[in-house]
Amino acid sequence: MNANKQVSLSEITSGILRAIPEAPAFVSGVRSMISAGPDKKMSIGLLLEKQARRHPAGAALKFEDKVWSYAGFNGWVNRIAALYQKLGVANGDVVAIMSENRPQMLACTAAAAKLGAIAGMVNYNQRDEVLSHSLGLIKPKVMVVGDESVAAVEDTEYSPLKNQNVRHLWLGDDPALCPLGYEDLETQTRLMPSVNPESTKTILSQQPCFYIFTSGTTGMPKAVVFNHGRWEKAHGGFGFSSVRLTKT
Question: Distance between CA atoms of 169 and 149, rounded to whole angstroms?
Fold first, then answer.
């Protein structure tokens, strides 16, 4: 920024006016940060359901040229959560998610959160003993694997042909190309119910929702735990009013 540039009164006023719509969200975020005790029933899934009720047509997710409304995204997440339940996922279980950035990754993560399960966010660049170490730390009941990561999983003891105790879901563009031992996520969720699961109402803010891997001091990754309350505090009240474009 140019240190000599002068800001006019009209520009300051304009900036204040643009910020006014964000004030309720900011106040809500501060209130949540203060009141988010460990025994409070609060979770990512509950917040998503709240937004779906209040702003069903509002933009929840934008990716390239596609937009998901809060109602549409919530329904999609619920169908994935129903599939997880069918595969035996319950409160406290781990769903490993190994995928490049794609909308399905967010939906799969939120679906785990709705059940009180933990989404293990595995770095899709991991290979061989490093990947085996990470999966061994979190011990997933279900693995959601992007097509680009299938080969890496095959080289570990968590491949579908080596580990029959773990169910494997595939994220890809063409269901006909789903690899042996995997189930295509889109096909399996198409006919699942889109209603909110009852489990979401019982989740406490202190419960873990993510495992995020960081570099360990020994050279092997470590799984850092994020709980629902920590996510809400970092979230800081960003909601429907913040999903908009502003001219600069």
Answer: 12
C-alpha pair distances (Å), 141 with each of 76, 164, 246: 21, 10, 43
Q: What is the CATH number of the domain that holds 154?
A: 3.40.50.12780
Total domain count, the chain? 1
Residue range 122-175, pLDDT digits in tens: 999 999 999 999 999 999 999 999 999 999 999 999 999 999 999 999 999 999
Answer yes or no: is 2 within a domain: no
Q: Measuring CA to CA, which residue among 30, 60, 59 is closest to residue 44?
A: 60
Does residue 15 fall inside a structural domain?
A: yes
The token pair that represents 159 in the structure block: 């491949």
Q: Which residues contact 197 (CB under 8 A, 6 or more apart)?
A: 45, 78, 81, 82, 85, 114, 115
Residues 6+ positions from 149 with CB-CB distance below 8 Å: 98, 99, 100, 124
- In which domain, by residue range, is 196 found? 9-242
pTM (predicted TM-score): 0.81
Give the separation between CA 113 and CA 119, rounded to whole angstroms: 7
